């Protein structure tokens, strides 16, 4: 192959290295106004009254909105979200009022003058407390919320969704087990920390149509939810998305777009811009849910897992419109990449008075794999088995069934090969080494898997146009959030139509009026699904080219070939046409014209996916599974708890690397994000539920000096037959399972099990001290 | 607030602007001069995305007041490549895949330029130290470090 499989440079690179790439915050519109939000100081309180009369007097202020101005709810899977807080506030940081002004200074000044009378309510600040029968309710009206039929909220409780998966007979399985091991695991809420904070501009037009410019992953989801919520037909809503400065899930679904649109209407139809500050990004924007897990594993002495009873509880925070699906995804993948014949899994998404949760790269898998991969290590140690051998013995291989009873397809990836690859490259099998009296070097490993969490009908589509000069234009709905999918898609067009990548332009923005539909840019699904759609669109283009060429060249279509921007008769390259000569219709010397502008289209939806059984969770949720494994060698200072990652090895079965440089880029970058989340990141709250570290000084993310000294990436390619050129997704996968590999290494070094994240030096030091 | 007149050079062009004394250099660059390549992402000196060269030295433009640049020379990412010809650092970023979402890229490109001007042959540690002031959430930094080292190596 000429283009697929090559490390071609990113097609968006020139704009990005020169600073000319457009992001939402760079957009300025005529008459544009600015909005600033007043945030709740309470985690849970009744709003008794709001007085903004003084604020309205500030020169430059156009209007002020409060929750009661927008008396309806929105949401992706559950309609539980208010545009601005109504009747009560549910987290410290929930927007209570919005000031719209000619400039930001006026808006900021006015915000200070708004007086809100609150009546504090007891908050729910621990997800385990939220499940207690006497817990205060975060959403009293849960039973009234419209929701997708795939979810199961329990009115009268804080449970926004309960997902259950049952397979085999778990009691029998435990009876047949020699050893039963049970452990609990915890993980805090964290921020996506996209370098570009959430930014959007909305304009309500006087004719009732709506325009949005936004930093978002999913323009079509925004259009759909907004249209549904406001009762506006979709052809009247336009969503424009330029380059996105990092999303990681936080810009999926719908966020602040409805707010700016409604503010615009209230402000006399002028465009209104909301640009979160970094502090607001932490306090107001959605976060990754917190997590609590309890796993009971029954295993035979010779290392076969017989049964598992699993409880996952996700701390959804104040709203769970997206979070319910994270709980569901973690539920149907709950065992990790292992075969468990008897299983009872329960995954709850639970409201608390913490900031609201949303999708985060990995979508529940970063969270539960922390628990599963720690548990696997602990169980292996209990039965005295090498953890690699234990994992391989229980590896979920093609032909075995997943938690939902799906028989893994023959051409699914190979978890065993991933585990063996990292074990070999890390030099598994040598005991920990003491370098100095306090410093120990040790190794750890963890495995991973994930499938896209999406509805069975999630769709992608593509349009390819042949320009009059023989160049091509590819239009797709997947947004460019850094992952590089569009470069790979251009390579696919190049391969299919035998045209250099330089002659293909991928439209660099998304505009719902022009762009073909894509459900969302999430779930590591877009290379696979847009890839298939692009292949079909390219073949449609080819068919149209050959149709005209066969008439002009007077040979049947199947005797023609396209190469090097020409269509020619096989074996007779001298009988040929330039693509440009048929791009807009072929013109004969006398003026007669046949054919016309060539526009190819293609779509893709997953094959034979199903909803899951509400009682047992059985069914086919997975477009494809991607498998992988991580191994680390660390140096631990037992005096101080400091660790250094000397070496990291990552192996992923990606099916086919369409662009190896981009695949490696995803893996190297994702792993550093994984380390950062695992070692440093957490929302810290005071006793009233107020975040105390809403800035990048106190909420540390990895810097250049924090990365592993060495990182070896192993790309395994067992092609999946229905993937584009055999490819599977890897974007989210790369950031899974590094923290459990580190904790497993600490366990091998010291015998100390750390089951709560983050693995900060302080927490490691405390854990080691407890043991002494 | 009373405005103050300042005269400075930005990307080789002399400008005269009247600014309020409480405005930052970042504000001057993005909101007055409309040079949008310099990014705003924390406005308190943590992330480094607004890094520009002030009299040849990298500064976080959110921490510098606009009035302070009177008589100074500023270079932003827009001032690096002229007439579409990329600089060796920019080319190396592209070759090494040292960018993803691109939001932090202008800052890293600026720091890379400054470093190699000051120290044409930096060690890996020196590159890492220079980059430590700028945050990236996508790339994991490794390709950025390698891109800069590669330019230094090729120059030798």
CATH class of the largest domain in chain A: Alpha Beta
Low-confidence stretches of chain B: none
Q: Would you tell me which CATH topology of the largest domain in chain A applies?
A: Aldehyde Oxidoreductase, domain 4
Strand content of chain B: 15-25%
Biggest interface goes to:
A-B, 55 and 49 residues
Approximate helicity band of chain A: 10-25%
Describe the biggest sheet of chain B?
A: 5 strands, mixed
Spatial strand arrangement across the major sheet of chain A: 3-7-1-14-11-12-13-25
What general form of chain B does the structure show?
globular
Count of helical regions of chain B: 5
Q: What is the name of the CATH superfamily of the largest domain in chain B?
A: Beta-grasp domain
Order of helices and strands of chain B: EEHEEEHHHH
Annotation, overall tally of beta strands of chain B: 5
List the domain count of chain B as a whole number.
Answer: 2
Q: Determine the fraction of residues in helical runs of chain B and give it as a percent range.
A: 25-40%
Characterization of this structure:
The complex is a heterodimer of chains A (772) and B (156). Chain A is α+β, with helices and mostly antiparallel strands. Chain A folds into three domains: 13-17 and 455-605, Aldehyde oxidase/xanthine dehydrogenase, molybdopterin binding domain (Aldehyde Oxidoreductase, domain 4, 2-Layer Sandwich), CATH 3.30.365.10; 26-122 and 192-283, Aldehyde oxidase/xanthine dehydrogenase, a/b hammerhead (Aldehyde Oxidoreductase, domain 3), CATH 3.90.1170.50; 287-454 and 610-771, Aldehyde oxidase/xanthine dehydrogenase, molybdopterin binding domain (Aldehyde Oxidoreductase, domain 4). Chain A contains 18 helices and 34 strands. In chain A, the strands form nine sheets. Chain A has an eight-stranded mixed β-sheet with strand order 3-7-1-14-11-12-13-25, with helices on both faces. A five-stranded mixed β-sheet of chain A has the order 9-18-17-16-10. In chain A, helix 9 (323-332) links the parallel strand 17 (305-317) and strand 18 (342-351). In chain A, helix 10 (365-382) packs parallel to helix 17. Chain A is globular and about 95 Å long. The N and C termini of chain A lie far apart (60 Å). With 156 residues, chain B is α+β, with helices and mostly antiparallel strands. Chain B has two domains: 4-76, Ubiquitin-like (UB roll); 88-155, Orthogonal Bundle (DNA polymerase, domain 1), CATH 1.10.150.120. Helices cover 33% and strands 16% of the residues of chain B. Chain B is built from five helices and five strands; from the N terminus they run E-E-H-E-E-E-H-H-H-H. In chain B, strand 1 (4-10) and strand 2 (13-19) form a beta hairpin. In chain B, helix 2 (88-95) crosses helix 5 (142-155). The model of chain B has no long low-confidence stretch (mean pLDDT 97). Chains A and B meet through helix 1 and helix 16 of A and helix 2, helix 3, helix 4 and helix 5 of B.
